[in-house]
Amino acid sequence: MTDPRLRFGVIGVGIIGRQHVARLLSDDSPADLIAIADVSEDAARAVAAEHGTVAETVDGLFARDDIDAVVIAIPSGLHAETAVAALDAGKHVLLEKPIDVTVDAADRIIDAERRSGKVLTVVSQRRFAPENQFLREAIQQGDLGKITSANIEIALWRTQEYYDSGAWRGTWKLDGGGALMNQGVHMVDLILWLLGDVEEVHAYGGLLAHERIEVEDTIAITARFASGSMLTFLASTTANGELPIRVAVMGDGGVAVTLDEQYAHFTTANGREVPDFEPNDVGMAGLNDFVAAVQNGHAPLVTSQQARAAVAFIEAAYDSMRTGKPVVPR
Ligand SMILES: NC(=O)c1ccc[n+]([C@@H]2O[C@H](COP(=O)([O-])OP(=O)(O)OC[C@H]3O[C@@H](n4cnc5c(N)ncnc54)[C@H](O)[C@@H]3O)[C@@H](O)[C@H]2O)c1
């Protein structure tokens, strides 16, 4: 007998929450959407009417026993409060990135996950790109030899209007940071997944090309992995062009460079070649992974501990940016 389909609620129906609603309602969805909620009841009603679904309050959604799991897509600094309440109400949680904006908040979520026995994952869609899965496998197989260094460049452009579009954007409390916490967290997660734990972080950063925000829009980081290999990492929202996101991994057996996840270089001493990749809907792959983790009782690809590690790296970079000293991530 196949498992009954998982029944979802979505909390927060802003830009990203609406994408989750559409995905859960699409023909390819592995699950059902039962109801949505937003602190703005008008927003919830409008999105419910548009998609032919039900609007609830957040507490009403937690109280429903026909909802097994919730997607949480609200401002980042509110993630722990709502994720802990959801877990304590007995719901599995698919939480938008970052897990929250501090390690302490991440730890509150991890405690609630443990006591509830429910599954929690954090969205980190880059891990579901087949090009990145291939890179991880190649590194683990030793195709690049001993990894000596890596370089990440996520140099994006965000307009002033973007930061002005929501009161929470660009605040330490609710966005938790700027180019690194909001946009760069995807690449922090990716490089930790590829290369393991980081021992020490040093950073310079500042607000260089935007106004009316508290956080950095440019940050340059160096770090050392526990393996001994070195990392340089640039994150900015001040590069007014269409630069691709660059990931480079260098080893004594080969090098790999991707630009927006397309291979620009992959050269190995053992002659390994990059295969053809099937296009993949990374958002749907993440949803499928979470549903399978709940139904089969295994860990999701992105665990709460790994999501915490990304925030620990970022917190260390911000500490270093303020003090000028190298910082060991918590
Ligand atoms: N995975 C990705 O690539 C990606 C991309 C963008 C944003 N995000 C993440 O998604 C989250 C939301 O970002 P967004 O751009 O959709 O923001 P948004 O401002 O467009 O939407 C947030 C929504 O949450 C609602 N809300 C606020 N507090 C709430 C609460 N306590 N309970 C219920 N609803 C509440 C707001 O009314 C709003 O509708 C952030 O954590 C962000 O980092 C992820």
CATH superfamily of the largest domain: Dihydrodipicolinate Reductase, domain 2
Helix count, DSSP H or I runs of 4 or more residues: 10
Strand % is 15-25%
Quickly give the structural class: alpha/beta
Q: Mind describing the biggest β-sheet?
A: 7 strands, mixed
Strand order of the largest sheet: 8-9-10-7-11-12-13
CA-atom Rg in angstroms: 20 Å
Helical percentage: 25-40%
User: What is the helix/strand order?
Assistant: EHEHEHEHEHEHEHHEEEEEEHH
Which fold name is given in CATH as the topology of the largest domain?
A: Dihydrodipicolinate Reductase, domain 2
Explain how this protein is built:
- The chain has a seven-stranded mixed β-sheet. It has a six-stranded parallel β-sheet with strand order 3-2-1-4-5-6, sandwiched between helices.
- Helix 4 packs parallel to helix 5 and helix 6 crosses helix 8.
- The protein is globular, with a radius of gyration of 20 Å.
- Strand 11 and strand 12 form a beta hairpin.
- The chain has two domains: 138 residues, Rossmann fold (3-Layer(aba) Sandwich); 162 residues, Dihydrodipicolinate Reductase, domain 2 (2-Layer Sandwich).
- With 330 residues, the protein is an alpha/beta fold.
- The longest helix has 20 residues.
- The chain is 37% helix and 23% strand.
- The site of nicotinamide-adenine-dinucleotide has 24 residues, from helix 1.
